[in-house]
Structure formats: C-alpha cells, structure tokens
Amino acid sequence: MPTHTEREHPWVGMIWAQARDRVIGDGGDMPWHLPEDFAHFRAMTRGCPVVMGRRTWESLPEAARPLPGRRNIVVTGDSSRAAEIEGAGAEAVDSLATGLQVAAAPSSASDASSAASAVRDSSGAPERIWILGGGAIYAEAVERGLADAAVVTVIDLDVDGDTRAPRLSEEDWRLESSDPADGGWHVAENGLRHRFERHARRR
Ligand SMILES: NC(=O)c1ccc[n+]([C@@H]2O[C@H](COP(=O)([O-])OP(=O)(O)OC[C@H]3O[C@@H](n4cnc5c(N)ncnc54)[C@H](OP(=O)(O)O)[C@@H]3O)[C@@H](O)[C@H]2O)c1
User: Fold this and answer.
1) Which PANTHER family does the protein's record reference (predicted)?
2) How many domains does the chain have?
3) Theoretical Cys-Cys bridge with 52: which of 107, 124, 132, 169, CB 3.0 to 4.6 Å?
C-alpha cells in the first residue's frame, strides 16, 4: 500500500459490505447481522480518518458515534444537521471533496482523534482515508474517481434493499485480491457465507 510520503495525497479507500445484487442497505440500516464483518471493518479503519454521508452517520447506533479512534467527518448540505453532528463530536462538511481535503490535513496530537496517530506520517498527515458510504457517497466517489480502492465484503445473501453499491466496471477497476481466494467463502458463526475482496482503480 503506498504511503503518504510516496504520493501527493493520502490513499483513499471505500469500504462496504454487499449482499447479492449489490444491496448495501434497507430502511436506513444494513439488512443482515455479520459480526465478522464489523471486526474486519474495525481492523481496516482503526486509526484513520473516515468520511461518510449524513444518512450513514445516522445509521450508526448513538452509543457508537463518533466511531472511536477515528476522525469522523460527515457530509451534509443541511446547516442545522451540521450543528447537531458537530455537537455529537464529529466534523461536518458540505461536500465529499471537502471531506477528503479535511481528512487529508494534518491534525494535532491534541485532537480528540489523537488515537489516529498510529497511521499518520511524521507531518501528522494520515496515510489512509476511508470513505464509509453510503450509497450516494460511494456513487459520487466512483463517478468522480476519488478513491484508489474498494474493500468489499461480499455476502452470499438474497435480501431486499433500497440502497446499492456502485458497479465497479472492468474498465476502471480490477479485482486485486480475494479472501478466501478463487471465489471461495468464509462461513460466519451464524452461517452467512462471505468473502473479503479488494478492488483497485486502474486509473
Ligand atoms: N453495507 C454497507 O457497508 C453500508 C455502508 C454504509 C451505509 N450503508 C447503508 O446505506 C444507507 C445510507 O446510504 P444513502 O445513500 O441513503 O445515504 P448516505 O450516502 O449515507 O448519505 C446521503 C446524505 O449525505 C449528504 N450528501 C451526500 N452527497 C452530498 C453532496 N454532494 N453535498 C452535500 N451533501 C451530500 C446529504 O445529507 P443531507 O441530506 O443532510 O444534506 C445526503 O442526504 C443506509 O441504509 C446504510 O445502512 C451500508
């Protein structure tokens, strides 16, 4: 994984879990329970700034937000919601591009998010930024080429949903790795079959 010192901007990854037909959400929540995916999500994003849309922020349980050990940046076009978000301990921005700029800026060790120091370079800038969704934010990130990679938990589940992940076209994206390899599956304690894929943007 390139580091901040090797490139002009920090590496930006999107992370999501999807059921069949790229379903990622329904009624403001995720229509499955997969603790193994939460553990994977925590391990991948720990210590890094995270950027998410207002609806995804609201989908987090109140007790879990802001997500601990990470600088939480929330995109909203609504100034009264922005004040609520700030009051709850996250940073509100009015666009995804601004969110990524804010996330890339060095932050001082005295910040509430100082737990993020583990993945900052010597100037205090983060080496990695994660886009946490949801559908609207992933779509914009793909459309505008704002992310270097997509880390996708593929869940072998047929479920109704009102929110979908963007399609990663073969022209722009390539499957870099799959765990397990060769289209196999992990089986969760509750029986859900899933695998962890990493896709890299070609250009
Ligand atoms: N499966 C997964 O891994 C995963 C991950 C994340 C989310 N989800 C699911 O996805 C769903 C939420 O996704 P969503 O598409 O409905 O919403 P979202 O992308 O989380 O948030 C959309 C909101 O972000 C703000 N926003 C987005 N683009 C903006 C822009 N260009 N300028 C200003 N503000 C902008 C707006 O907030 P305002 O309306 O406040 O202006 C907009 O309503 C939920 O069901 C959630 O559970 C699933």
Assistant:
1) DIHYDROFOLATE REDUCTASE
2) 1
3) 132
Measured distance between the N- and C-terminal CA atoms of the chain, rounded to whole angstroms: 16
Specify the CATH number for the domain of residue 184. Answer: 3.40.430.10
Tokens 């010597």, residue located: 122
Residue 158, both tokens = 């047929």
Q: If 0-12 CB within 10 Å is exposed, 13-18 middle and 19+ buried, where does residue 181 land?
A: exposed
Which residues' Cβ are closer than 6 Å to ligand 1?
A: 16-17, 24-25, 28-30, 52-56, 59, 75-78, 81, 94-96, 132-137, 140, 163
At 36-50, the pLDDT tens digits run: 999 999 999 999 999
Q: Return all residues near 62 (Cβ < 8 A) that are at least 6 apart.
A: none
Of ligand 1's listed atoms, the one at least distance from the Cα of 94 is 33
